[in-house]
Amino acid sequence: SLSGCPRATFAGKKGKLSGDEILNTKFKTSDVLENDEEIKQLNKEISELNESNSEMEAAMVKLQSQISSMEKNLKNIEEENKIIEEQNEALFLELSGLSQALIQSLANIRLPHMEPISEQNFDAYVNTLTDMYTNQECYQNPENKDLLESIKQAVKGIQV
After folding, report:
1. Contact 26, 6 (CB under 8 A)
2. Residue 113: what pLDDT?
3. How far separated are the first and last CA of the chain, in Å rounded?
4. Quick one: pLDDT at residue 25?
5. Which residues contact 114 (CB under 8 A, 6 or more apart)?
C-alpha cells in the first residue's frame, strides 16, 4: 500500500503528486522486475562474498596455527641454544683449566726448535706434541725417546 511506502508518503505530504500519479510514475511493472533481478544479483554476490569470507577465515585460522607452531618451535630452539651455550661455557672453562695445567706441567720441558710453552705459543706447542706422538717413528733416536718419556711423566698427573 501507499501508506507504507516512504517515497509515497513523502511526495504525498508535499502535495506534488496524487496517489495515482505516484503509481504510474514510480512503480511500474518493469521497475519491479528490474529490482527483482538486481536483488537476485545482489543475493548472489552476497553468497559469493560469504563463501570467500569463509575461505579467508579458514586460511587465517590455518595461518595462526602455523604461526603458533613456529613460535613454539622457535622457543624450543632458543631453550636448546641456551643449554648448548651453557655447556660450551662449562667446556671452555674446563679447557682453560686443562691448558693451564698442561702449561705448568710442561714449563721445564723444551721441544726442539721451540721456546718453552706459554699461552702465546700454546697451540703451536700442542700441534708439535701431537705430531711427535702421531709420527713416533720419526723420533726413534735416544734423545727424542728421552724427551717423549719426560713429556709423558710431566703430563701424567693431569686429570682430564
Report:
1. no
2. 75
3. 103
4. 53
5. 121, 124, 125, 128
All three cell numbers of 106, joined, read: 710442561
Fill in the DSSP letter of residue 111. Answer: -
Dist CA 153 CA 103 (whole Å) = 14
With vertex at residue 136, the alpha carbon angle to CA 130 and CA 115, rounded to the nearest 5 degrees, is 50
Tell if the pTM clears 0.70, that is, is over it: no
How far, CA to CA in Å, does 111 sit from each of 48, 84, 139?
86, 37, 12
Angle between helices 122-134 and 142-155 (to 10 degrees): 120
Cell of 146: 728421552
* H or E element, residue 160: none
Distance CA 129, CA 148 (A): 9
27-79 confidence digits (pLDDT tens): 555 555 567 888 999 999 999 999 999 999 999 999 999 999 999 999 999 99
List, for residues 139-149, the tens digit of each pLDDT value. 666 777 777 77
CA-CA distance, 124 to 114, in Å (whole number)?
9
